[in-house]
Specification:
The protein is an alpha/beta fold. Helix content is about 30%, strand content about 25%. The protein is built from eight helices and 14 strands. Bound molecules: beta-D-glucopyranose (BGC).
Length: about 250
């Protein structure tokens, strides 16, 4: 396979930093996903060293896409809700180039990456019309997609609903920390999605993150007018979207 059809994606999360080589025709991994614990504290330098380890292990010398849990513009992170605040002051391109050497590195928000991947390789319903993709994990990430094109850096997890942020109401992190059953948690998710529906009126919601694997447990409990589609790429989405963005950085222009 020629290099044109390959991309390398990295997804940096609160607990794990993961990477894989991706076949960009199919969205499938080539070889194993490589995973390390995200270092603590997760400073840019420490995380960059972990990423370098993954890339060395994969023996990859091409471009790399890196998905991050915050607002990303060029070489800067503008928010750091679920990552070390030192990212806000770093030139992330310089920090990563210092260990990854001379190669193209593309940074993007993790939910934007996952949303792009879902559009490219997931449920065909995500490819047309106005879609809000949400990734529900430690926080809530969002990607706005219109006909498969991304409006980057939306942060719906931080939308205030009443006086609480959406991700403090209905993330999996909250479900876990409060020990909520699906029956207890579903009304919280409905409240959040109901507010998104009221304000943005998408044609569909696509829900990703770990919770999408268990959609049979919560989907029937929701009553909304907007169709809700569970994502199909599960925990592959962030890596695959990052690989796609590395190969075609125009996906995240703006
Ligand atoms: C961050 C988002 C991110 C989401 C999922 C939120 O707290 O603000 O940028 O996409 O968590 O990681």
């Amino acid at each position: 396979m020629c290099e044109q059809q390959l991309g390398f994606g990295i997804d940096i999360g609160g607990s794990g930093t993961k990477g894989a080589l991706v076949n960009l025709h199919t969205g499938e991994f080539i070889g194993e996903r490589i995973k390390y614990e995200t270092p603590k504290p997760a400073t840019p330098e420490a995380v960059a060293a972990t990423v370098a380890k993954i890339i060395d292990q994969a023996d990859w010398d091409g471009p790399v896409g890196i998905a991050l849990p915050g607002v990303v513009r060029g070489s800067s992170m503008l928010t750091a809700a679920n990552i070390d605040p030192s990212w806000l002051h770093a030139n992330i391109h310089d920090v990563f180039s210092a260990v990854l050497g001379e190669r193209a590195i593309t940074f993007l928000n993790d939910a934007d990456a996952a949303g792009l991947a879902e559009v490219a390789y997931g449920n065909p319903q995500a490819q047309s019309g106005s879609v809000i993709f949400l990734t529900i994990g430690t926080g809530i990430g969002s990607a706005f997609l219109v006909e498969g094109k991304l409006f980057p850096n939306t942060e719906l997890g931080h939308l205030l609903i009443g006086n609480e942020e959406a991700e403090k109401i209905a993330s999996s992190g909250v479900k876990k920390s409060l020990g909520l059953s699906f029956d207890d948690w579903a009304p919280r998710l409905e409240k959040v999605l109901g507010e998104y529906e009221r304000l943005f009126n998408p044609a569909a919601f696509v829900i990703g993150g770990g919770i999408s694997r268990k959609s049979a447990r919560w989907l029937p409990l929701l009553q909304l007018s907007t169709p809700i589609i569970p994502a199909t790429l599960l925990n592959r989405a962030g890596i695959v979207g990052a690989a796609l963005a590395a190969h075609s950085p125009e996906y995240i222009a703006g």
